[in-house]
Sequence to fold (281 residues):
Amino acid sequence: MQNTQSLYLPPDVAPRVKKPSIWSIAASISRTQYWLFAGLGLLLPLVAWAVLTESGYVDPVFLPGPVQVVTRLFGWMMEDDLWGDTMISMYRVLAGFVLSAVFALPLGLLIGAFKPIEAILEPLTDFIRYMPAVAFIPLVMLWLGIGESAKISIIFIGTFFQMVLMVAENVRLVPRAQIEAAQTMGADRGEIVQLVLLQSAKPAILDTLRLTMGWAWTYLVVAELVAANSGLGYSILKAQRFLKTDTIFGGIILIGLIGLLMDQAFRWLHRRSFPWLHSKG
Fold:
């Protein structure tokens, strides 16, 4: 009886439903709360770094402070060619990444869709992906010389095999019920691959591209070992020879910032392309 009466209580008298805590497992938070926490996560290491360097316990030659690094970045921009180094590094990373995606996406789709192709290609791909990209440098120089194609190839080798396997796994995770429903409606193999597997796996594939873009940046320094005379990775390696740790820190932080911006661009594209996956409730 009491329960029935409570259904007709006016809104100002009815008991309020308690909002779940943001610390509940899998709880959602607002965009404002997200950016506040993100800012805190970025600010805390910066403060700890500044405090440590200002304490005088660490030699600035080995660990320069944030102000010293920012000053060096400004000097790099004004006196040296920071803009040119950044642009050539971005070109190498994007060229290697796009080349990987062009070949890895269809190959991963076929491996995920057809078991015979999986049996032929997946063990080989798995085998090669454990080989370090650095070990291919002598062969790449022998085959391609020391031009831009060699640097792009190192980034391609570092990302392609991982990307193929991740895309194949994205396709394999498409619910079997969707495939059976398409078969029931008379769809042929091509239609199932194109209209069911690819469409259903698209959100996960975009996430795979976002993750592998990060790996492409990690291979930049390795790629610029190949007789480079420009680029952020090359500048970091050159600074190491002269113990210019402020330049090393500046280059690393700049690579991290560019990577973070690209990651956010992929996340934005994911939200725009698949809004139903990000809607609340």
User: Anything to note?
Assistant: The two ends are 31 Å apart (CA to CA). Residues 1-6 have pLDDT under 50 and may be disordered.
